Every structure is written in structure tokens, then in C-alpha cells.
Amino acid sequence: MTEELCFLKTNMKKNIYLLLVSLLMLNTAIGFSQKNIILDTDFGGDADDLGALVMLNHFIDKGECNLLAVVSWSTEQYVIPAIDAVNRYYGHPDIPLGIRQADNYYESWNYNKVIADGFAHTMTNKDAEDATVLYRRILARSKDNSIVIVTIGPLYNIQALLQSGADSLSPLTGKELVSKKVKEFVIMGGQFPEGKDEWNFNGNMPEVTQFVLANIPVPVTYSGFEIGNAIKTGEVFNNIDPNQPLYVGFKHFSANAPWIKANYKGKILNNSTFDQTAVLYAIRNGVGKYWEKIDQGYCKPDENGGNVWIHTENPTQQGYLKLTAPPEKMATLIEKLMLGKL
Question: Can you tell me the distance from the alpha carbon of 95 to that of 54, in angstroms, rounded to the nearest whole number?
Fold first, then answer.
């Protein structure tokens, strides 16, 4: 083989490789656009918050998600160490963390401490930024209509943001910042078309939900209790490496959560999959594939954590998801997403 022919073949291989990489990147860009996400969570009480955070970390690696911050509604003593530990375990130690301003407490059945004890972290609750300040700082420096806020816990942090005034971070009020910078809220909460006393709509402060839903100035999509309650995930984690947060958190939850521990026999149990559905919609949408979106109406919350969907003739800025895919198929899909296999 001549030197010239060898050069041509080598150059051809290089060009083919670059073409394949370009096509792969183009296919990814066409299939999924990167979403700018802020996650607001009551991490530690239910295993679904852990599953949702792990999913987002995998979506970062796939180029589908830019996780701008994780904000905690919970003020449990180990909540920020646990969130920090999960993000660090999955290779994203620099995600800003915020927390609402309230007294700390310790809850032994929460999985926060076992994750914090088992995995490297550097932050405590005191190190996390004030939730409202963090929200305002991120919104102020972001492009218009560029952020999706995913709430998978009670809505106090959102109320505080909406009620915040102009400051050194922005001359806009919180409501004005949301209107300008946020593209959509994805709220895991409520039951549809109606229900009573759902936790995220109650949170021992149901008047917060009434205020927030009356004042959000941008589109809202709800993933209700009924969707996550139909999808059961978790048992598959009995077969994974036990030295990872999913195993440690789900096992502690199965053994200790008041509403599930009676069935614990030493192995991880299946659990309702509420928060993961909100994350799946926020990143991949899935309307027409996993669920349909009912948008003729709006959600009216009550003073007890319940709600009812008020039908209107025309679409509004609000909508709720109605599951159309078989729950078993959804469970398999979400388990693969939590494991980073899809």
C-alpha cells in the first residue's frame, strides 16, 4: 500500500467517524431538547423524591437536562446532606441547593441520614442558600421563558417566591420574575378530576396551595396522585449493587415508612411512583405516548388539601395528565430511567 493510499484511507475513516458523531448529536437534538430545570422537593419522606432526583442526574448525563438548582421544602436535619450526597454520587457536585427558612428537625424513618452517612457530601442545611434568594438569583440571570420549575412537594417555596419583592438581584417582583423567566410549572400534586387531602396540596399548610394556584402567571401541568398511585416501582432495586443511593434509600424507606413497613420482609418493596412521573413529563413530555393532557379547565384547591377540576369550554393555561399507557409498562420505563438504562 502506498503512503498516499494509506493517508486517504485513514482520512476517510476519520471523516466517517466525525459524520457518525454529528448524526448522533443531531438525532439527540431532534429527539430531546435540553430543559432548564429547577426541582422543588420534600426529599426524604417518600422514596419517589429520591427516584426523581436520580432520574434528573441521569438526564443531565444524556444531555437532556440542565439542573439549575434543587430546592428543599423539607427542613429535616439531614435533607441537604442527602441531596448533596446523591448529586455527588452521580457526578454533579456543583448543583446549587436551597432550603426554606424554618426550624430543623430529625425524623428517623426518613432516608436522609442513611444516605448522608453512606455517601460523600460536603454540605449541611446551614450551607444551603435561602430558597427565595436562590430562586430569584437563578431567575434573574436566566433567559426569558427558559425555565421549567418542577415541584414534587408542598408549595411553600413557590408562595415565598411569588410574594417576594424587588431586591439587589432584580428590580422585578417574584411574580414578575416568574412571568418573564419561567416557561412552565410541572406540579406533582392533587387528584384529578377531583380528590381529597393529597399531601403536596396539604403539607399542613393547604392555604399555600390556594394562594399559589391562584397566582402562578404561567402555564401549569399537573401530574396527579392517581397517576403515581397506579405505577409501582422499587422491587427491581433488590438486584442492583447495594452500595448506591437508590438501594440504600429505597430499602430504608421500605423498612421504616409508616405506611409500608408492615409488609417489609427484608427486601425493597414496590412503592407508588408519583414524583418520577412529573420529571418524565418535564423532560420528555410524552403526551400522546404515555398520557393525554386535559387542558379545558383549571384546578381549584380547597382549604383541606383537596381539589376539583373546573371544566371550561376552551383550553386554559392549566392542564392535567391522564395516563393512557399500561401502568406496568410505565413502571418498567421509569425503573430503567432511574437506573440510567434508557
Answer: 13
d(CA 77, CA 111): 11
Q: Does CATH number 3.40.50.300 belong to domain 34-338?
A: no
Bridge partner residues of 76 (DSSP): 105
Q: What is the mean pLDDT of residues 250-265?
A: 97
Element (H, E) at 8: helix 3-31
50-80 in b/e form (b: 16+ CB < 10 A) is bbbbbbbbbbbeeebbebbbbbbbbbbbbbb
Q: Is the pTM here over 0.70, yes or no?
A: yes
**Omega cis (within 30) before 93:** no
pLDDT tens per residue across span 35-61: 999 999 999 999 999 999 999 999 999
Q: How many CB atoms lie within 10 A of CB 269?
A: 21
Q: Which of 301, 133, 145, 309 is nearest to 219 (CA)?
A: 145
For the cut 80, the answer to whether the pLDDT of residue 32 exceeds it is no
* Integer angstrom CA distances of residue 16 from 10, 105, 315, 318: 10, 58, 48, 47
Given a contact cutoff of 8 angstroms between Cβ atoms, the answer to whether 268 and 108 are in contact is no
For residue range 64-106, what is the model confidence (pLDDT) as tens digits? 999 999 999 999 999 999 999 999 999 999 999 999 999 999 9
